Structure formats: structure tokens, C-alpha cells
Amino acid sequence: MPPAKKSGKSGKLSRKQLQQLKEYGELDPLNSINDDRDLDDLVSKALGRSGYGSFTGKLRAGKNSRDTGKGHTRSSLAKPQRNSRPDAYSRLLKSLETTTSSTPVSRKSVVSDEDENMEENDDEATLDSASGDSENDDMQSASDVDEKEYGVDEVDEDELESEVEEPIPEDLDATSDVKEVFEAYDYMEGHYADVDSEQMHKKLSAVTNKEYEQTVVEDAALGSMVVCNVAGEGAKPANPRPLKQKLVKPFHKLNKTGDFTDFQRGLFGWFDQYRDVVYAGRSLANEDEITTAYALHAMNHVMKAKDHEHKNNSKLAKAHASGSDAGELRDRGFTRPRVLIVVPFRNCAYRLIEKLLKLVSAEQEMNSTRFAKEYGPDEEEERKHNANKRKPEDFQRTFAGNIDDSFRIGVQLHYKSVKLYADFYRADIIIASPIGLRMTTGAESGDRKDFDFLSSVEMVIVDQCDVLLMQNWDHVSHLFNHMNLTPKKDHGCDFSRVRSWFLDGMAQYRRQTILISEHMTPEVQAMFNNNCRSIEGKVRIKPTYTGAVDNVVTQVSQIFKRVSVRRLASANDDRFSNFVEQTLPDLEKSMMNNKHTVIFASSYFDFVRIRNHCKDKGYIFAAISEYSTKSEAMRARMKFFDGELQFILYSERAHFYHRYPIKGIHHLVFYSLPDHPHYYSEMVNLMLTSNDTVSADQLSCTVFYSKFDQLKLERIVGSRLVAQLLSGERSQFTFA
To answer: Between the CA of residue 649 and those of 516, 580, 599, 636, 698, what are the distances in Å?
Structure first.
């Protein structure tokens, strides 16, 4: 590998190399180890031309001083002692000096002389401009053509040559090649490698046939998790250098704790291996850590991919200038978007993009004013937020700010700038809600259908799956069904640069899917089983639950009744038949004397089914759903409190969006368990706060569940008791 070129034709060094002189006392040994010129000569030349003074020591004639043109000469600068350099650099330099003759170490230089001269002009205004030659012109024109085709922006030397700024890990040999040292654990390089090997075929076969080797792992920070390995590949060592160097300082500044917390380190470690991950323990306490972790992972992925493209662009330009063949350089997909992040509301997108912008630390943020206006909170939203101070903390956090659920925004990264509201086919990252993407892609049978921008997505992050379930999960399923399909148009694609596994229709096996939820649900579990197909394996992380019954403070008897169902397909019908034939007649008898009954239904389909049946039977009741207006809900609650209604039918979505404080509840019936476990304790505790004159023996709570409600039941009664309630000999259990 040839040694790196020095900046310009005058032997000058770049700003980065001058900074190394200032920090470490001499040039980066990896950058100048193979240079023909003496190291002292390079140091003196750099110092003499940049205004830092001259070097005292072994120097060539005429380089020890320089007239400044202002009547005085520059002062001499003594060479700092070597022991002022960090220990890692001392060790590395000593090792390299002893192995220079047998193991030369060099670095790739992919920046043209013209670009380096531009950088020097910023350092010294009096530097003579280097004359351009035909070779550089040809290289520049070739790069311009390639950038125009795919929208790849210019790259700077500081970005590409940052691999040697951190010390070599202690467990690696210091004499190894720099690229091997710092990319030994770069799982992105291996995951997206365009290779056709026997091991790769084994992985594809195992994932296609769902032949996973499952291992239960206990982690102090993450809890219990199930690791699914493929093709005999077990645990992988952690990457000692997972981040791009330019992301390290912004991340430490963004993260409240500076470096990774134990929780973030564990979670990011699974992300960095490019496994599919589902984490079902999101909470108010860790949501900021989780968002920072996956935002960092997404930005790290995009930056590494763009750097890889820039290097290949330079290789093609040099090959074009010399008339040689650069070979196959496949580094992209059909379209530009690489990362898709799905969140439920604009306020979530606002907080996420703010983190992304801080990580990029760009000099220019295009359309930031428009973004703050359309996604940030306004005065009206702040007023509504202040009116919700009496509601639970999770409600305030979810519905603080802009809660519009129809949006989509593209983020395009340049070297020194970021553009928001970029066209999808020019964006690197797309952040959207499910309904926002559905409006873009069109209906299933409509004429306006465009899924091509999803054809080359390499990473999908779905945050707050529990909230998306309260919206419409069908839009999420529709999104995954139309991802990584072969595009209908070329969109200016350079097919010679498209990776082979995109052309072969195997992109879904290289895509990483990350699902973040407050709890595990059958819908999330089904997506994890059917749509997460990364060849690196997958991980399911689910916490252990103590049970929401522990948060009930009302002295009321809680009766859990197991409903007998024949099979999963008929579970809803069996539950409804049991309710109509046995439960409802008993409620009707009790409602002759006491009408303060609330029936809670978690599914809107069950809600509609019960409502229609009760209307046909002539019951006097009110139904409160997420579609009920505030005035309708208020009238129903007033009539219920005054005893004018036999019962209220209440949906989980209505409680999610409004948290109505229903007063006067004497009997509470859970037709089905809520997905959110704290809703159970909230509803039961409402019986205490609204019945000051009613004794505990006049209150009752009845819960119906089936053997297919294991996930919901575990969150209510706890992981320790769930097996007993599902498979015990008795079908009725009482908690007091």
C-alpha cells in the first residue's frame, strides 16, 4: 500500500497533522513511517510554513528560520519530550520502528491534491496555490459524474482518516495492519459483505427454515433474554471501537452520563452485531437511553456506509484517470434511503431528530425553522399539556407537544450540513408514522402506489410499538409487507454499484429490524417471528414482571375466571358466548339493585360486538370509545354517577387517549385484560377514589381470561403466578 500523500506540492501538512504536532509533540507515526523524507525535516517544514515557529534540532539548511516580512524572524520552538505523548502512541511508535523494514504500515489516501490544497488555504492565507494538472481534473470530473448520479457529497480527509486517532485495543497486536486492527470487530463490514461463501448459504438456509439455536441469557442490566443464533455461530465479542470517531464527542455531550451506561452498552452491543432485536421493557425511566442508543446506531451506520461509498468513488476516479480497471465496487442498493425509523407522533419525531442533529454536529441545518414550527410544541399545545397535569405521568409524556400522527420527513446528510424535508429518493434516513407512510405508498388497490423508496432499506427501527397498537397496527404490517421489494423504476440507479444480494432479492435477510415496546404483545411477537430474518440471528429481551395487582390499593376482592376455549381461531367467539350466556344475566340481576357497573373491553372489535348485542337486548347503558366526543363522555359519566344507567361500556383506547376519571364504580368487569398492565390498577383504584360512602364488601372486580392471554396475564398477576392461573386445576382465583 503506498504511503499517504502530503498536502499540496510544497510538502505542507494538513490542519489535522498540525493538530497532532500540537497534541503529541510530533507527527502521527502511522502517517509518515514510509515517507522518504526525514521526520525532523517534515516537522520543521510544517512549523516553518504555518506560523508556529521553527524547529530546533536536526534540520536542513535554510529551514531553521524564516523572515516574516514584518522586520523580525519567527521564534524557535523546542521539540517536546516524547514522554508527553499518550502511552498508546509510545507503544505503537516503538513497535513500528522495530518492524519498519519487514512490516510497513501505511494509510489509504482518497482525497485529491486539489481538495487538500483547498484545506491548506484555510490554514494559511499566504500559501501559493498549487497549479492544477490534467490528472486531477480528470479525477474530479469523474467524481462529479458519480456524485450527480447518486447524490453522494464530498468528503474531507479528516473524516476518512480518523481510524488512527484512538489507541489500539490491548488484546490486539500493535504491529497488525491498521485496517485489520480497527476493523477486526466491525460487524457492519461482515454483515453487508458481498460474498458468496458456504457459511453464508448455511445462514440463509437456517433463517429461511427458522432453524435457530436458542439460548437463554441473563444480563444484569437488560434482564432475561432469548438469543437465537444461526449456523452454529455463538456469542460474538464486543466491538472495542464501534463508533465513528466524529460521533464520539457529540455522543458524550448528548448522553447525560457521558459514556455508555451499562444498560446502553448492553443494548447497543446487540444493535452493533446487526441482529434483529425486540426489547419489551421500555419505560419512562429508560426511554431517553433507548432513543439515544438507536439514534446513535442509525447515524453510525449511515456514516460508515457513506464513507465506504466515498472511498469507492475515489478508487473509480483514480482508475478512470489512469485508464485502469477498478474492479467490482458494490456498495449501495437500488435507492438511497438506508434507515427507516417509525414513531407514533410528531413529538416523538421532534425529540428524535433533535438527537440526530446533535450527533451530526453539522455547520448548517437546512429547513430547521420549518421543522421547529411543524414538529415542535406551540402555545396551544403547551396549554393543553398544562391542563393534563392531574393525569398520570405516562399520559403527560405521551401527549406532550405535537401529537399529530400523520407525518413523514426525510433527512439527507452532507459532510458539513444536514437537510431536513429531503425528497425520499435523496434522503439517507426516513422518519415517519405508519399512517404517514401509508398515505405515501397508497392503498392496496389504488393507482398511486410507490414502494420503491423502501426497496433498499438496511435498517428498520419501530419505536413505541405499544402506542402504535393503539393506533392501527395494520399500517405497520402493510409497511413490512412492502419493504425490500424490487423497485418498479430505476430512479437513476447505477446497477454496477448495487450489491448482489439486492439484485438477487435477498435484501430482507440483510435488513436489521429493531422493535421497541413497553411490553410484549402477540402482534409484536408475530412480527418478530415472521418479519425479522437477519442472517446474524435475533434477540428477544423481555423483563420479569412483579404484577400490576401489587399496585392496587383498593380493598376489593379481585376474582380471576378462566374461560374455556377450544382453539385460538374460536377464542373470541367462545369468550363472547360465555359472557352473553352466563356473565351478562348475572350482571342484569345485580343491576336491579346496584347499577354502578363498568365493563372494560381491550379490543375495539369486542367493544362493538358487546355494544350491538346490548342495544338489541334493550339495555340502558352508555358506550365510551376513542371516537366519543368529550361532551358525550361527560354526559355518560354524569348519568352513570347519578344511577340513570345500568352500566358503561368502556374501551382501552378511550382510556389510553383520555384517561377519564369515572366516578361511582361499584362493580368492575374486565371482559378482556388490558394490554397496558397499569390500566388494570388504575381502573380498580378508581373504585376507592370515587366511593367514599361505600363499604369494601359492596365492591367487586371480575376478570375474564383464557389460556391464550398468557402475555397479558403475566403482566397483571406477575411472572411467578402466571403458570398456575393458566394450567391450574381450578378455573377461578381470588386476589384480595
So the answer is: 31, 14, 5, 10, 20
